[in-house]
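Appendix C reproduces, verbatim, an entry submitted by the partner laboratory led by Prof. M.T., so that reviewers can inspect both the input and the predicted structure.
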Amino acid sequence: MAAGNDFIASIDIGTDKIVVLVAEREDDRLRVIGQGMCPSAGVKRGVVDAIEPLSRAISKAVQQAHKSSAVDLATVRVNLSDSHLSCFEGYGKVPIIDVVTNLDVNKVLESAQAYTMPTNKEKLHVFKKKFTINGSVKVDNPVEMDADVLESNVHIVTVSSSSMRNIEYTLKQCDLSVELLVLDSIASSEAMLSQEEKDNGVCLIDIGAGITNFSVFHHGGIIHSGIVAIGGNHVTEEIAFAYGTSFNEAQRLKEVYGCVKATLISDDEFVEFAQTSNRDSHQLSSHTLAEIIEEAYLDIFSLLKNNLQHQGLDKNLKSGLVLCGGGSRISGCEEFVRGFMSKRVKLGSIKRHNFTAPESIFDDYRYASVIGLLMYKEDVPQEGLVKAKGRAGTFGKIKDKIFGEF
């Protein structure tokens, strides 16, 4: 069965895993009808490192989703992580004759993002903020309001051109094209954050295998995004180095015996493990293991904390921090982050609004990003502007409208 307007599909391309979901639209709801998951390949620290092995991994997950849904996928929504991520605020201002029209809104938003991009960077997202009428009145939708001047502020997220092109080309190898490309932490926020949390101020932290993504929301919208270029694999590598084990053995020790906060270890126990250099039996202290893990998490969260403080955002988080990703599921993570960041902290869970899926999907953190991709609809498509200037590309097929609905 060919995928048409009644179906929507998403792919989470991660360092550790590839996840695919296929959903069917039912009025205002989405119902998951197919899923696939398999180990990832060709991705290093969240970025495409080798196209051929990655395309094979994606094809395998897509085949699984096809087997369960009987839907032939053609276009998909995809997440993206990029260590070269940057974001900044844009400002636009246009004169108004009588009342604000949709054309005026388009003009002021175009003005707000009229920045010359470096040749190696591209806009991934442009998020609308409140509009200002006559220098003082802030509104969400200014259309048909009396005004002399209309101003707009936008939040612009940019990534490296190569990151976008590599994902685009990898999917082309799988006979797929991109419908939407979404920053990973923003996709996860759609599945995990409530509107109240976004209004009050919240930071979603996605601790993946290769990198840690985070996005900050306040007054209902996104105000900052960033990446820490290390994640759960950094913790595993520190364990492997400390005990002379293989990566897989260190991963086992972390998952089975690991804890992020050493003071939570009440009864120290000795754990057998294997070294790579010899086959003799070795033992380690669970308390010492926790100290190594805690130091590795300190590396991650020191960088994140410094970024938030540098941006002046650490005091705008009334709803605190929400943790997601595989790196958040280790014992003691919530307690460690709460103590180090001095903020309210909770583990994220997938929202169930307007969504129907097997209970196993809602209970599995690994589906957060793909569900968020299916739910995502607040982006300001950039290719509308590109098409207007005569350059149509793959992403130009996304939407005909330029600046969303008003």
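The CA atoms of residues 63 and 228 lie 33 Å apart. Additional entries are available on request from the coordinating office.
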